[in-house]
Amino acid sequence: MQHSSIPHRLQVLAVWAIASLIGLLIFNLGGLDTPQTYWSAAKPSYLQHVAFWDSEWYYRVATQGYPDSTSLPIGQDGRVGQNTWAFMPIYAYLSGGLAGLLSANYYTCAVVVAWLGSALAALGLDAWMRPRVGKAASLLGVAIFFTCGPAIILQLPYAESLGLALVAIGFAVLAKRRFAWAMVVFVLAAFTRPIGVPLGAALGLWWVWEELRARGLISTSRFDASFSSARVYADADPYAANYDAATAVPNEAAIASFETAPDLTASASFEAAPPAIPAPPSEAGTVSPSEAGAVGTETTDSAHAGPQAGDSETSGPEASESATSAIASFEATPIAAGAESSPGYDVVANYEATTPSNAPAPAPAPPALPSFTPMDLSPLPLSSKDRLWLFVTAAVTCAAALTWPLLAWIATGRMSAYVDTETAWRGVDLAPFEAWINRSASFGGAHAGVIGLFGVLVLSACVLSWPQLRQLGRLTWMWCVCYWVYLLIFFDPSSSVFRMLLMVAPLAWAVAARLSKRPRAALAVLTVGLISQVLWVAWVWDYGSISILWVP
């Protein structure tokens, strides 16, 4: 198999750039069809077009900050009104800080930050998924993900691109047991998008799972085995040579000795046992039991290698006598005193002197490189040290998720300020699952809408139980499950649900793993994605640009 001379990361960026530029074209063409809106006149310019919807709220965060106890909007009914506490600070402050540093327009800098975040998301998702699906499928995953409908939001002044980049990078470094870095990245993610709760839940669930595995309670179950049934693409990971598969922990000393020392294991194996001696051809064409014992380890190699050109088959007394005499000659041949050669090479020389001229000398097998296995794909339970670090990572992430509501409480003097702000857009108090029930009546009617909601739950179960998704790893699957359940419990399912589902990006790589060798099916999926981008811009972003009279 030929490998491209272009570095893989550059290939990822090339695929991302092509997909994003197509999305930019669709977005700009959609702007030409946009009527007058709350934000701009008809046919807005690019910077006016990107300033729709929540882009304005991030601008307010960058320019006005967050309300305190004196400026928190309170309605006559005592409910908290819409305000900036619903939007995390990192993206807005980065964009505003860049605008102040360059004395540039805020939205210009916000778009730059969003594009950079989108590129980082592509690289992070590839680093996370590549060891699980391989290079080719990962490139297809990048293409599928960045051509799906709501992916255009990743180049607009929203925090989605930066938040997704931090999640992907965090999981990628966590898979390599870089727990300290993972904690830093997850804390940043929790202050970029309100995803700290599902992040902490996924990490905590994985920790509980590993504790049960270590105690032998679920390690033998078929369900747990399904997470390790996928092939691990060691050649797809740049850290493949820095991993000790025998101990499942990084082993720098072993790596250094491997890189600098000769292959002593191969030499020792030659000293410990005589080499296999091919016998002359016979008429019967079979191998006798006595010859099988004399040949030693050659049988194993031949079983794997299959018949080769020039191989001969022997049987009978001639084979036994030939093998016995060769071994006796091998044992009786001394190694010259003071010879400057390793034991392995002396054995090879003696072997060549005592074997028939038509028998090729066996070449020692090259040492196997240790392979990198993502931590959540390991067939063995994690060590106690890894489990402790995983618990600390989950605890720190959960603490970060609770810090923002705490800061809102301290700043406003209202304990429920953050939750009240989040529910200000729906106009009712937070009640788990209730928003989905109410929305089902809005979308499908008070009676038939329940059937639609049931269908959503069945579809969710089908997607999350897909074996291809589980083969991306325990943590990957648990992240998708926890985030999906988080949306079902807390989210108000408006048309923003498509944007919210971008966080379950591994689904695109699960699809890519199935389609990487099916070009027609892959092309069909990419085409459907581009069509969905047109519909997303026209029906969701460009408010009122398309008026459709639905006729049965």
Automatic annotation (TrEMBL):
UniProt keyword terms in alphabetical order: Membrane, Transmembrane, Transmembrane helix
Transmembrane segments: 12-30, 104-125, 137-159, 179-209, 388-411, 446-466, 475-491, 497-515, 522-541
Region span, Disordered: 272-325
UniProt signal peptide: none
Protein name in the entry: Glycosyltransferase RgtA/B/C/D-like domain-containing protein
Organism per entry: Actinomyces graevenitzii C83
